[in-house]
Design goal:
It contains 14 helices and 8 strands. By secondary structure, the chain is an alpha+beta fold. Strands 1, 2, 3 and 4 form a 4-stranded antiparallel β-sheet that branches. A 4-stranded antiparallel β-sheet has the order 5-6-7-8. β3 and β4 form a beta hairpin.
Length: about 375
């Protein structure tokens, strides 16, 4: 039976309490919000006006009351056809409280191994979220500002000290690459640091309310690395929490180096062990700091996107710059914030890549000459 006008506006529908709503994100010229249904993992974008309505479906306010708030905010009252369309969409997607349960997602493959000998993945734990949950419970006492801030200060001091000793570190690393056994030991430690990097993302996500769907090993021979798939952290309410989850890996990389820095500092210059540690400290620092560069797919790029609340910053910057040359009216239609962000990132990332290539070419020329 179709509700009469008065009956429809008196309804007090509610979203399911587990539905995830993201903060506002800039995506191209539009501001959008993400909505995710956890059971199926399906997510979709809605505009600011749709989010205004959906986020107020709390089971307390009636549609008439929400419509009044909407009219006050946007200067237009919704027709009943709009309400019917919105409720139909939400009901079809199973987002409203009391809706029929969504079909369960397909069961994971019976085998944790996928791919071939040359390229594939291997799930290492059956329940990644539970595993990171246990790690988080054990580490929770140290995941506090009074502990993390001094550690961050020590890492900054470490990088300043290493920069001041860069000539020695460079000479020792060049010596290291000609010592096969020591080099294998250093790269083994760096691989372990990479594994800790991935687990740090998972523990940080659990700390701030995200989830972890998979922990495993990914390879494309001859390389093989650990991975940790973090879910739902895009729906965390604060930029700082999202920023922290994305930056946790580099933090873990630098933290891993601190004990080796103490060992290195205790040895005299020229000592063979100190020379090996020099290589570890230089390569490990490069591994961590390069990962903080704001270029895809590095963590620094993800951190910048969270800080700016922008979705797909790289592709959308490229799209905007192409419009600047091919369709200026379309580019001019972008809001001012979008124009500034996309122009700055497009030009800045290009300049950064040029500087990196120039530095690599200069370093290669220096070693060839000397």
């Amino acid at each position: 039976m179709t509700a009469t006008p008065g009956e429809l506006l008196s309804h007090r529908p509610a979203l399911r309490p587990d539905i995830l709503l993201s903060p506002a994100l800039l995506h191209g010229p539009a501001t959008v919000h993400l909505i995710k249904e956890p059971d199926s993992g399906a997510a979709f974008e809605v505009g600011v006006k749709e989010y205004f309505l959906i986020s107020r479906l709390d089971g307390v306010r009636s549609l008439g009351e929400i419509g009044g708030e909407y009219a006050e905010a946007f200067g237009k009252r919704l027709a009943e056809a709009h309400w019917q369309q919105l409720l139909k969409l939400l009901g079809t997607r199973g987002l409203l409280a009391g809706a029929p349960p969504r079909p369960a997602p397909a069961a994971p493959a019976a085998t944790p191994l996928n791919g071939t000998l040359l390229r594939g993945t291997l799930r290492l734990v059956a329940d990644a979220d539970a595993t990171t949950g246990r790690l988080h419970r054990r580490l929770r006492p140290v995941l506090r500002a009074p502990v993390l801030l001094p550690l961050t200060g020590l890492m900054v001091a470490m990088e300043v000290l290493l920069a001041a000793n860069l000539p020695e570190l460079g000479r020792d690393t060049w010596w290291l690459v000609r010592q096969p056994v020591a080099l294998v030991a250093v790269f083994t430690l760096l691989w372990l640091s990479t594994a800790l990097h991935e687990l740090a993302h998972g523990v940080s996500a659990r700390h701030y309310g995200g989830t972890v769907s998979e922990i495993g090993l990914r390879w494309r021979l001859p390389a093989a690395v650990m991975y940790c798939t973090v879910d739902n952290y895009r729906y965390l309410r604060t930029r700082w929490h999202q920023f922290a989850v994305a930056g946790a890996g580099a933090f873990a990389n630098l933290l891993f180096l601190l004990p080796f820095l103490a060992w290195w500092s205790a040895l005299p210059e020229g000592d063979p062990t100190r020379r090996v540690l020099s290589g570890l400290l230089l390569l490990g620092s490069v591994q961590a700091l390069v990962n903080l560069l704001p270029l895809p797919p590095l963590d620094g790029y993800t951190m910048l996107g969270h800080a700016l609340r922008v979705s797909q910053l790289g592709p959308e910057s490229g799209r905007y710059l192409r419009l600047c040359f091919s369709d200026r009216p379309a580019a001019a239609a972008y809001p001012r914030r979008a124009r500034v962000l996309y122009l700055c990132y497009g030009l800045g990332s290009t300049l950064l890549v040029v500087l990196i290539l120039a530095a690599l070419a200069t370093g290669l020329y220096f070693h060839l000459v000397h």
